[in-house]
Structures are given as C-alpha cells and as structure tokens.
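For practice. Supply one:
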Amino acid sequence: MASVLFSTIGQVVGGPFAAGIGAAIGGSLDSTRSRRGAADDSYVPRSAYGEVVPTLFGTVRMAGHLVWALPPSTAGGRKGDGRRQADASFAIALSTGPIREVKRIWADGREIRSVGGVFAFQTTMRLHSAPVVKADPLILAAEGAGGAPALRGLSHVVFEGFPLAPFGNRIPSLSFELVADVDAGDGWLAKVAADAAIAVGSSLRPIAVRGFASSGVSRSEDLRRLSRIAGAELTLDMGRLQLSGGAREFAVSMDERVSAGNGADDSFQSVKTDAPAGLSLTYIDPDREYQRGLQRVGRDRAGPQLQLSWAMTSSADAAIRLSNRLLLREEASSDRLTMVLPPRWLHLSVGDEIRREDGGRWRIIRRDIRNLTVIIEAERSSIAETTTTDQADPGRSLPAAVVPAGATSLIVFEAPVPVFGNAAAVMVAGGGGVGWRGADIRLLAGGEDQVIGRLDANQGFGELVEPLSAGPATIWDERNAIVVRLMGVDGLLSREVGNVLAGAGLVLVGNELIQFRDIHRIGGDLVRLSGLLRGRFGTRIPDEAWPAGTRFAELPPLGAAATPMPAEAIGRDLAFAAEGRGDPPGGTAVLHRVEGQGVAPLAPAHLVVRLQADGVLMSSWVERGRSAWTWTAEGIVPPQRFLWRMRIPSGGQLELPVETTILILNPDQQLALLGEQISSGECQVEAMGDGPAWIRRSGWVRF
C-alpha cells in the first residue's frame, strides 16, 4: 500500500521521474511492519511512558492505558487477620478520539459491569470524552490546580474507590466495551484517508465490520487495512488521489509493445510466484464477549499460509467472507507481468487497470519512465466474485451474568445457653442474595469500631415460605418441616443422626435455634428441611408458629460472629454493622436491645408437687446451670434463690421466696397464708435474677 501510495504522490508532485522515487520510499515503509493494530493488542493493558494510544471506530473492546493513579487505601479488618480491604482510584486512557458510551467492563476476564451499567460491586466511574474540557475533580483535588493533568486529547475513564480485594489487592487487567461512534465503516475509511489528503470515491463495497482500532503508530497501516476491508484501490483521478472500488480501464494490445532499448526482447515478461494455499484471519468476535475469533480459508494445494491479525470487531460470517476475498486477492497478485509501452501511454498511472486481448485484467502497481518508454509492472486483478453464502459458527458463549453485590441482612440473637464457647454472648448471623460475597461484622461501641467476626457467603440464608408450627423440644420433631427460599448460595447438606446429635446442622429460624437432619430440594431456590430438633440451647419455641417470611440463617460450625455479654449490658442497645462489597459506606447497621438471655438464671427442672394424705403440701425441684445443660455434663451450679408461686381454684395466690430446692406447707401454714386448707391448685418456680422471665420460670404443675 505504501509503495503504491508514494509512487502516485510522486507522480502528482514531480511527474513520472518522481514516481520512481516515491515508490522506493513507499517500499521502504512497506518493509517496516508495525507491531500494533493486531487483535491481541486489544486485551493488553499498558502503563509505560510513551505508549501510543489508538483511535477507535465503531464498537470495540479495548484494554486501555493506565495514566494516573493514587496509592491504594485500606480500611476494615483486624490487624494481622488478612481481611483488610483495599481500594484504589485511577484513570485509564481509552482513545485519542471521542467515546460516546462505555458498556460492559471486564476485570481479569470476568465481567464486572453489565451492558445496563450495573457494577458487581460499589465503585464510581466517570467518562471523559475527548476533547476533554477540564480535569476530573478527583485528579484536580489530588494533584492541585497547577499539577493536574487534564488529558485533553484522550478519552479516559476515572475510577474512584475501586475495590481491590476481589483481585488480590491489585488493580486488575481491565478491558472495556466502547462505542466510539455509530457511523458506517465507510465513514471510518474517509476519516483515516482525509489525514493523508486522499479522497474516498464511490463504488466501494460496504464495510461489514462493527468496529476498528487503529494501530496508533502508522496511519498508512490503518489506511491499508481499512482499504483491504472495503476492497478499495488507490487511483489518480483528475490529478487527485482517491480510494475507490473501481479504476480507470485501458485496452492495451500486445502490438503496442516496444523494446526498452537494451538490445533484448524485454518488451514483455510474465512471472508467476507461488500462490498462497490458505489464509487465516484473527479478529474480535462480539458474539463471544469480544474474544479473539479465527477464520481460515484454504485451497487444496501446497503453498504459503498467510496469517493476518487485525483489531477489528466482526461477526464470524463477515470475517469468513472477508477472508475469502482477501485470499482471492492474494492469489491474483501472485501473477505479475511487465510491459514496455510507447510514450503515448504516459497517462497511465498506478492503480489503473489494463485489459489485454485474452480478456485478462491487470492492475498497475508500478510505473517507470526510461528511454522515452513507459515500463509498467502489473498484477492480475482479483477474480470476479459472485454472491457468497459462506457462513461461520462463532461457537457458544456462556458468560456469567453480572450480579450486583447486595447489602447484608443481619440477624442479631441471643441464647440462654452458650452456643459457641462457654461465655454468654450476643451473636450475629445473616447473609444476602445472589451476588453477595460475605461481610465483616463490626461492633460500634464507645466511638470505636471492633471487628468481631465475618459472615461467609457459603452459609444458607433465606426466609420461610410456609409457617413452621410449634413442636416438641425433647424428642425429634418428625411432623413439622422448614420450607425455606434460599436467597444466596445453596450449601445445605443432609446429616447423619450421629452428626446432628454432635451439633451439626444448626440453623436459626426467627429466634429459635433448630437442628435438621434431612434436606429435600423442591425446585429452584426452595428447600425442605426435616428431622428437626427444636429449641436448641434453651431457645424459645413459639406458642403457635413461626409465620411465613420469618428469616432463616445457617450457622457456621466453627462459631458465629459474637461479642461478650456482661450483665450490665442488659437493657442497653448494641449497634452492629456489616461491611461487605454491596453494603453502603459505613456498612449496613442494625440495633439490638440486649435481653440478657445468656446471663439469666435458668428455670429449675423436674418440679414435683404432692398433696399428702395428712394435708401437707410438698414441692421439690432441681436447680439447673449452664455448665450442666446436657444430661451427660457435670458442672457446678451456682447458689440460687427461687420464687415459689401457687394458684388455687378459689382465686387465692401465694408467692414465697425460697433458698432451697424443697418447700413444705403443713395445714396450719396453709390456713395462715391463704385462710383455707389447700385441696388442689397449680405451682410454678422462678429462679430470681436478671434476664427474660420466660427463661427463669418453670411451667405450671397441677396437683
């Protein structure tokens, strides 16, 4: 292309003799290949000084150039726990021309922004299209008015608060789906040709590609590629350079040949080189998330294989048709001839076509003037093409949908008996929907933030779709089942009976801790949990049922996020915050008023009330402690005081403080306290202390 271009320019400027000089210059340019403009360049991010930024046309995927950045900032996590979250603010140059729109964005090959502009995490992005009027406010604030680079000639994007944790605390390799313009491909050729003062004529075939990225180094290389895509040839029309689909035609008879004056019959020479046996074209396929596509065409013969790699966006069908046309052109150009013509053919120019008696058509690629003769070198024109029906299958693309990381939903709960460890605690469970990736849990107290644990995305979280009725707390509940709609990851598994009895399969429904044995997946995001152990760790079973919509959370086997619960915290509000990728700045906060379940004295067990034949009322019970909660545990029960209550049918009531685990009332005492002798009634014993009454009180026992 360069030899043809400069030969023609030389002829216009200096006549026939300058044409040879121009051809020599162009030949030297043709021998120097640019390294840019290949399909692979679109995926390689750059940040070195002096890098060339390309000009984009149509819709392309481009990696861009990192041109400005602030040092990463870190926040969250506990010192040394490896959970500190880092984010960065930086600018990436995309094109030397304008950019109309940024669509999808990929980071390390994973889509992080959908075509609708939804990010997979919280960040701020601003697009500045060239020519840029003023610097981005973040760059201006960081660098100052005198030192802020405006990047006026570069279309660029600025990211503010880009999270680095999902990418190993580094800026990932970003690439962008960019819409530079909505012009047809002919307009791109006209823009590039105008830089070389070359007009674009008519009769060009439509450019079927959807986007094109210039090499950024050589306009002649860009012009050559776009011309080949459009099937355009460089011609001289009325003294003006022009790219067009047709050329001037001249019928030249073999009788016109003359000798160049060398004493030999050099008036005609024909040379046929090895025609290429195949051509492969690498391009960018928009139907496969702008990944590299490759189309091959070939012939059933031996010969060189041509390999082209162009940063153009094209469908597979258009790429295979272009490959066929390019191979036809290369096959034709392997057949060349040289003719010596008389001076009357001085008007012939590079790009013209000559037609011989045998019907062959030849395009002039070089013209020389020697000894008042015109020496032309021509190559056979492309074989006339018929309408092609070549089709190509780009293959299937299975892109992962961009799911924004939603906010964390927190459930703060207490239990009368320690669930994890031996101390009373306020615990935090929770989760999020699809796309939620976990969150750090912080306790906000005294103006300071303290990280107390983390919620992981592999724990089940959702809500009941059917009410969960009350069930027994002492045996397996085989009648009821938990039917839950999971909002995030489904990691629930069935458990063996022995594993359940050892503590596995623990979930939170409302404020009740339950263990499950079996899981049945109903379909979609619905699961059914059965084989239940209810009211675990002393939690309360509802009187009737947990209604539909009650939140459900699976608890991790190694312990939930928790903070110790001192007795003085009862009745006070504790503030917790979840800080994940989808949570707002400062985190998703929730307040919890401490009930003191973990420090409340436990209600006594085995309350027995007997009215003996002699009228003596005898009542006894067994005090209970957290360290001796299970039947097999042996622990120390601290000294307790009790409040003994009795109700009788006549309406009389009696409350007596007791410091032992037995109470005896003889008939005289009954008359003194109630004014009558007891014949029937019911009794209850309450452990005296702080905390919810339902934890401290036994059930009513009739006698």
Remarks:
- Residues 247-271+334-382 form one domain.
